[in-house]
Fold this sequence. Notes:
Layout: H1 2-6, H2 17-36, E1 40-49, E2 55-66, E3 70-72, H3 74-83, H4 87-102, E4 109-113, H5 116-119, H6 124-134, E5 142-146, H7 148-152, H8 155-167, E6 171-177, H9 183-189, E7 194-197, H10 199-205, H11 209-224, E8 228-232, H12 237-245, E9 250-252, H13 262-268
Helix pairs in contact: 2-3, 4-6, 6-8, 10-11
This protein binds ligand C2E and magnesium ion (3 copies).
Amino acid sequence: RAKREGRNRYSFFEIGMDETLRMRKIVEEDLRQAITRDEIGVVYQPQFSADGRKVLGVEALVRWTHPVHGPISPADFIPVAEQRGLIPLLGEYVLRRACRDGKRWKGISVAVNVSPVQFRQKDFVSTVARIVQEEDMEPARVELELTEGVLVDDADGAENAMMELRALGLRFALDDFGTGYSSLIYLRRFAFDKIKIDRSFLESMETTGESAILVHSVVHLGRALGLTVTAEGVETTEQQRFLQAIGCHQVQGFLFCRPVAAEKIDELLGLVGEDGSVERKRA
Ligand code: C2E
Ligand code: MG
Ligand code: MG
Ligand code: MG
């Protein structure tokens, strides 16, 4: 987990061991209640066309505002939720919220992150199918973001689960592409629709020419395989111009928009009427 923590500036795991244990205890004790007490929220970060002009999708990102300790980063509480068996509950909550909100954002995809632990649950496929159906969401607009960790331990199981969900129309993105050790193999074996280039590549692009070459080849590879290529963590105009020039399809990052509340996405998509009401029919 060192890698992920290293990229998270506000990670509790960086402020000393006692703090770490304290936070772990808070998470273990309070997360279950947090879900029922409405402390858990979902924000959405738009994904834009390469020129940064058109919203093509959003990614749902979970947020926890603890009544005493304030905002806790998902990078900190998701690992604990995984260990304490709370991730199915949390994952289902986020998926349901994302479907409920995303339903009115016609024509754009709604991506939901899936934890490896959640994905490996026996009833994962049926649970996802049920939630999407209950929320009356178009399955083809639901994109599940998986990381390589999902695919490593039980490749056959993962393949089957993906196939079943694909048959229902759901789509798949390979998240944090390039941070694992055998991404290429996974691309060949598993039926992804999209790859998301990890933001660590963009970060280092400024300093090393090698990273730019890597990003370039990933975009080419993705395009050659007929996949949509999204770059995440785009923070500068230079990065956006480069990505657009090399044929990257989609960009996501603070340069365009931070993760925001569902109501802000309504505004962004022009769904808010003059009286402030959200119009649900228009695209
Ligand atoms: P991820 O899926 O790779 O999500 C992208 C993360 O990068 C988000 O952090 C987002 O806020 C951040 N980000 C987006 N654009 C930029 C940028 O331009 N610069 C920088 N520095 N960061 C940017 P967040 O929301 O803290 O989430 C961290 C990770 O926690 C996610 O990485 C994902 O792995 C996990 N996560 C978040 N929500 C969920 C969830 O509902 N379920 C599961 N299983 N995991 C989640
Ligand atoms: Mg993601
Ligand atoms: Mg990612
Ligand atoms: Mg990540």
